[in-house]
Amino acid sequence: MAIKANEQDWRDFDIEALDMLYPLSPAMEQDYDNPIARFQVGQPIICVNAKWPTMVATANLQVPASGAVYHIRAIEPKPWGFGLLLAEISNPIMKLSSGRVAEPSFDEDRFMPVLD
Fold first, then answer.
1. With contact defined as beta carbons under 8 Å apart, do 56 and 101 qualify?
2. pLDDT digits (tens, 9 = 90+) for 34-51
3. Per-domain residue ranges of the chain
4. All residues at 6 or more sequence positions from 74 whose CB lies less than 8 Å from its CB, including other chains
5. Rounded distance, CA 113 to CA 69, Å?
6. How far apart are CA 72 and CA 18, in angstroms?
7. In the predicted model, is pLDDT for residue 19 greater than 50?
């Protein structure tokens, strides 16, 4: 049975298998160890991807809407990039699938900067 990307439960991903399929180049390894956020706190951004995995939809969280403008409240480093907390959205602190207890953040790849 095919699963659409927005219905995938991310806890089922085998990270080691993905690392073997898509190894990082030495340059990417260096960037991964010293990541640089492409956004800044306070910056206006627009949501360009509001297709949420089933686990997000069933968690009863507030999520960004496609095409809506938000402002960055905080930026959190993640193993895969950065997570953004938005000034216009506040969710309760909860135990995340990673095991951390925190407010859920949104992947930076779901947003683009607002152009003047």
1. no
2. 556 789 999 999 999 999
3. 11-113
4. 41, 84, 85, 105
5. 9
6. 30
7. yes
